[in-house]
């Protein structure tokens, strides 16, 4: 097992050195659609940022499972350019429940691809070796990272879970017969302690081992070639060195990002601080030949009627940054307060329409053939 993993590392380093010169994904065998998406996101981010919303087309404020619906579309006439989904249903359930979750998500990703939109997948991964779910619970949780990395007692169990993801990735055939690309963002917000893969529950070396094995196994063993791999801590950094403290290496990452709710009204309004952190992310992406993104943010219930332009847009425009997308969190179907994008009648709708009409932001209707390589990328 160790020899095989070392060989994978050597091959990955070689492939990365070749691809880095071309400005392509870390996967030398990435599908042409995945390579085109990577390239086009990089081009678009020079002047624009795609707007994304988690679970946008699965459910929204007061509704669930309606075809071609999203709260953002109900407000603007267009779906978000980026649709966030989650692999949370791919493990920790009965085989029947896993199969149902995989099929529902497969159809969601294919529908987005067929419309010309982009999918990003987070992973609220239920603890594979103890109770407690994906959150860390002091009385229940075990530090699973050390158990599931190579050499750990639950490593083979982790491979079975990755097999489910691999099988699913191979099933994402769109109407054109090609596999839909997915921006895969595992183990997010790892610098905090609220998830079992967080900093207090795994050493730096253990986390990096987990990341590298996950990428290598999916890409090199399971032949998943339609993933773009995104690295996204929370906002607990103020220097590049702190941002990269658990970075697995350029040969293992396609996109660097940041999750930040705290500076956007949840804990404080700190536009200058937020902009500085986005610049750290963007500057590293430019230096390393990566994509950058604002991978999660939002203000629950959006009570601030000018939040979209005076806080979010201001933070993204304040510094010279290239951001492929910005994604706000989900709109719960039952909760009267847990939502992060407006719906018809919500108090921030007028300001959101200003955000929507700003040339800097792109929605699904603005995207033109993002899965095709071209010399000039038209968007309107």
TrEMBL record:
Nuclease found in the keyword field: no
E.C. numbers: 3.2.1.78
Which molecular function terms from Gene Ontology are attached?
Answer: mannan endo-1,4-beta-mannosidase activity
Picking any one GO biological process from the record gives:
substituted mannan metabolic process
The entry's active site is: 189, 296
Question: Which keywords fit this entry according to its UniProt record?
Answer: Carbohydrate metabolism, Glycosidase, Hydrolase, Secreted, Signal
List, for all copies, the residue spans of the domain called GH26: 32-365
Broad enzyme group: hydrolase
State the family named in the UniProt similarity comment for this chain: Belongs to the glycosyl hydrolase 26 family.
Source domain of life is Bacteria
Entries under SUPFAM superfamilies matching the protein: (Trans)glycosidases (SSF51445)
Q: Which InterPro entries match?
A: GH (IPR017853), GH26_dom (IPR022790), Glyco_hydro_26 (IPR000805), MANB/E (IPR016714)
Binding of substrate, residues = 124, 194, 261
The residues forming the signal peptide are: 1-22
Record field: catalytic activity: Random hydrolysis of (1->4)-beta-D-mannosidic linkages in mannans, galactomannans and glucomannans
Origin species, per record, is Pontibacter ummariensis
Q: Where is this site: Plays an important role in maintaining the position of the catalytic nucleophile?
A: 188
Q: What is this protein called?
A: Mannan endo-1,4-beta-mannosidase
Q: What is one GO cellular-component annotation here? A: extracellular region
Location comes to: Secreted
């Amino acid at each position: 097992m160790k020899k095989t993993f070392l060989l994978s590392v050597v091959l990955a380093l070689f492939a990365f050195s070749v691809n880095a010169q071309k400005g392509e994904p870390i996967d030398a065998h990435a599908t042409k659609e995945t390579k085109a998406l990577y390239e086009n996101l990089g081009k678009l981010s020079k002047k624009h940022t795609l707007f994304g919303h988690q679970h946008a087309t699965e459910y929204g404020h007061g509704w669930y499972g309606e075809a071609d619906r999203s709260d953002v579309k109900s407000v603007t006439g267009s779906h978000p350019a980026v649709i966030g989904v989650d692999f949370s249903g791919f493990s920790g359930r009965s085989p029947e429940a896993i199969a149902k979750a995989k099929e529902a998500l497969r159809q969601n990703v294919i529908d987005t691809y067929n419309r010309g939109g982009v999918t990003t997948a987070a992973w609220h991964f239920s603890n594979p070796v103890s109770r407690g779910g994906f959150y860390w619970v002091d009385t229940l949780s075990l530090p699973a990272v050390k158990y599931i990395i190579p050499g750990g007692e639950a490593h083979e169990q982790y491979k079975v879970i990755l097999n489910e993801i691999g099988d699913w990735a191979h099933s994402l055939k769109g109407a054109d017969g090609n596999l839909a690309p997915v921006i895969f963002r595992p183990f997010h917000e790892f610098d905090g302690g609220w998830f079992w893969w967080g900093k207090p529950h795994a050493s730096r070396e253990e986390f990096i081992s987990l990341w590298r094995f996950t990428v290598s196994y999916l890409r090199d063993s399971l032949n998943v070639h339609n993933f773009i791999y995104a690295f996204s801590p929370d906002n607990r950094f103020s220097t590049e060195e702190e941002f990269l403290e658990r970075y697995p290496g350029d040969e293992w990452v396609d996109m660097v990002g940041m999750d930040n709710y705290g500076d956007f009204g949840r804990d404080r309004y700190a536009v200058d601080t937020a902009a500085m952190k986005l610049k750290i992310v963007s500057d590293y992406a430019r230096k390393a030949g990566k994509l950058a993104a604002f991978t999660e943010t939002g203000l629950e219930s959006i009570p601030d009627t000018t939040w979209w332009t005076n806080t979010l847009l201001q933070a993204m425009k304040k510094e010279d940054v290239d951001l492929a997308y910005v994604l706000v969190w989900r709109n719960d179907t039952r909760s009267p307060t847990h939502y992060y994008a407006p719906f018809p009648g919500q108090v921030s709708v007028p300001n959101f329409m200003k955000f929507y009409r700003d040339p800097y932001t792109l929605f699904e209707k603005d995207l033109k053939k993002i899965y095709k390589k071209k010399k000039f990328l038209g968007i309107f």
